Amino acid sequence: MVKIISVHSFRGGTGKSNLSANLSVSLAMSGKRVAIFDTDLASPGVHVLFGFQASEKDLLINDFLQADAPIKRCMHEVTPKQVRSAKGRIWLAPASMESDKIAKILREGYQVEKLNDAMFSVIDELKLDYIVVDTHPGINEETLLSSAISDALVMVMRPDSQDYLGTAVAIEVAERLDVPQINLVVNKLPDCFEPGSVKERVKSSFDYVPSAILPLSSDLLNLASSGVAVLEFPDHQWSLQVKELASVLETTLNADES
């Protein structure tokens, strides 16, 4: 049975979209079939990491939400060659970068139930194992309803005071929605921070042990979203921890099913 993983953060700038892409690739590298839905419609970015450039003929998730385009035609295969060699597949439902379409979706909104139904409608046709949802940051109706259908929520935060406060609110909301599994990820940890101390602060603040503490990496900064780090730097500490997070999610979600 397909598992839905939502990747969320209380604020923007946490590296949420980057983690969504790398987590999806890590899952697919174990031979799984993964679909990514970029629902951060105000500031989409997952497509950049996969080098996807929409042509005038390509339909995007905005076309499904506001023009009733078939959701299947909004799904684009973005499988990197390394993933294909590992027998995995990745599809992306990208959001538009056009300013008028972004303005329209912000002005008029959309029916999130329609988007949730669309996710379930492509499961059988694409024979999916996982759906990864890159959410819009913050607490809003769209994110709440997406989180409510998720099997796991990956909450991404940076090690600063505003993120600690905001993440506490987001976790409380997720718990009230009875999200089965919540995983905390600390991202962009500067060298001056000691990981053990951060781990203890996160544990005492939220009563959750962080599933991963990812370093602020000059290699990733130099990559500048022009590729997927777990493929470009497979032995980097950042990549190794993301792959371990994917492995933990696979194990725990499959254990929940059994």
Q: Summarize the amount of helix as a percent range.
A: 40-55%
Q: Report on the biggest sheet.
A: 8 strands, mixed
Q: Runs with pLDDT <50, length 5+? A: none
Q: Provide a count of the helices.
A: 13
3D shape? globular
Strand content: 15-25%
**Which H/E pattern describes the elements?**
EHEHHEHEHHHEHEHEHEHHH
* Alpha-carbon Rg, integer: 17 Å
Average pLDDT reading:
93
Terminal Cα span = 11 Å
Q: Find the count of extended strands (DSSP E, 2+ residues).
A: 8
Strand ordering within the main sheet: 3-4-2-5-1-6-7-8
Supply the helix-strand structural class.
alpha/beta
Overall description:
- This protein has helices spanning 16-28, 46-49, 61-67, 81-85, 99-108, 112-121, 123-126, 141-148, 161-176, 195-206, 218-223, 229-232, 237-257; strands spanning 3-8, 33-38, 76-77, 89-93, 130-134, 152-157, 182-189, 212-215.
- It has 13 helices and 8 strands.
- The radius of gyration is 17 Å and the shape is globular.
- The mean pLDDT is 93.
- The chain has an 8-stranded mixed β-sheet, with helices on both faces.
- Helix 1 (16-28) packs across helix 13.
- The protein starts with a strand and ends with a helix.
